[in-house]
Amino acid sequence: MPHVESTRVIADDGAALHVRTCGGGADVLVLSGGPGCVHYLADQDLAPSGVRCWFPDPRGVGASDGGPHDMARAIADLEAVRSAIGLGCWIVLGHSWGSDLAVRYALDHPSSVRGVVGVAGHGLHRDCEWSAAYEAGKAVETPVEIDFVPQVHAALWGSFKDWIHEPPLWRRLADSSVPMTFVAAGEDIRPDWPLRQLAALLPAGRLEVVEGVGHDFWSANPDTWRDVCTRAVASIASREHARPS
To answer: Is the pTM of the predicted complex or chain greater than 0.90?
Structure first.
């Protein structure tokens, strides 16, 4: 990972969080998938151009302290990183699980998030037909081996279910002023209807479909990944949303 610098941030409970950074320009928080995966996007060659990217290792993963935790703790850690590096707000770019976490971050802390770019996200659901299509497609998907921490994965996945069952969730989405762009991979075995619903519901939501690429196109088509992310991030960086008072 050339030209990537490392730093340590102390969360509000004393846990040390490992954060890498590269580039220069508008600040972009990059969240990889999982949950509980090592930060596979922390690579200068994958980072969108013209911006400064921040890559925090999730709590209990990689070089970060801690262990299993819920989504609220994950969001608090992101806020701890933002505060420690002295930023007022940033754009959040997330892949897969990182896309879903980015949506929650924008809802919980709208003044901290200039906009969201969610690539190949799961969407805010636990739908049996979606899961059946995913399971059926596994035979044709080329797996990408990524290290992860099973205990962190299980805790966050359980917390995700609790979050999407909260009664105010869809009202909060419909009222959000944060610009959110959702990117669907055209060859993803995961159905994209949850991303289409989010893009249609959010006042500043939009959907883009990238044809000819699969879920992990950051690995199989890195040039396409970087071009798509660069364009999406630049579009959000060029505008501001109305911030809550």
So the answer is: yes
